[in-house]
Amino acid sequence: MKKICTIIALFATISLPSTLKAQEFRLEKVNDTLSILYLKTDAGEQKCKIPYPVYQFQTGDVDGNGVVDAMIGVVKRTRFFPEIGKRIFIYKNYHGKIRTLWMGSKLGGILDDFRFTDGKLRALEKTTDGRYVVAEYKWAHFGMDFQRFIATNVNREEALHLFHSP
């Protein structure tokens, strides 16, 4: 019996320099611990294995260069933070190929979720005392740079409301 994969797709058509006219990032979940990131352009299709559980997938121009990037939330350990936690991997389209832009070990607090809005990464983060903050980060040469708190020291319900607000 052939297994049907769950497909999470988000399409982005944009103007690109040179001969590339359109691009599409999409993420296909193969199983609980393996997803495939696809980049389809006029020049062909590239793929990249994501060998971790995925909790979030977003696209947007993270680094401000006019080209859409893919943001993937994964659950894994890192060298500097050995406990299993939610992380953010950002991939870019580099001449029609998938390339790593940033593989974040940590933002500010304990990452719960993220979304990309208005050119910024909005993060829902837990604190060590069980409260929540909602913070915004913006790309700064190599990595995400803290911009501002939308809320601090709030309960989960209030944090979620602010996290999802425009």
Describe this structure in a few short sentences.
With 166 residues, this protein is mainly β. It has one helix at 156-164, and strands at 6-9, 23-31, 34-41, 44-50, 54-60, 69-76, 85-94, 97-104, 110-117, 120-126, 132-139, 144-154. Helix content is 5%, strand content 57%.
- SSE string, helix = H, strand = E? EEEEEEEEEEEEH
Category from helices, strands and their pairing: mainly beta
Overall mean pLDDT score?
Answer: 89
Apparent shape? globular
**Number of domains as seen in the coordinates:** 2
What summary fits the major beta sheet?
4 strands, antiparallel
Rg to the nearest angstrom? 16 Å
Low-pLDDT sequence parts: 1-20
Number of continuous helical runs: 1
Percent range for helical residues? under 10%
This entry's quaternary arrangement is single chain
Major β-sheet strand ordering: 1-2-3-4
User: Terminal Cα separation, in Å?
Assistant: 44 Å
Would you report the number of β strands? 12
Strand content: over 45%
Description:
With 166 residues, the chain is mainly beta. It has two domains: 1-105, no CATH class; 107-166, no CATH class. Helices cover 5% and strands 57% of the residues. The protein has one helix and twelve strands; from the N terminus they run ββββββββββββα. The protein has a four-stranded antiparallel beta sheet with strand order 1-2-3-4, with no helix packed on it. A hairpin with a 2-residue loop joins β2 (23-31) and β3. The chain is globular, with a radius of gyration of 16 Å. It starts with 5 loop residues before the first strand and ends with a helix. Residues 1-20 have low confidence and may be disordered.
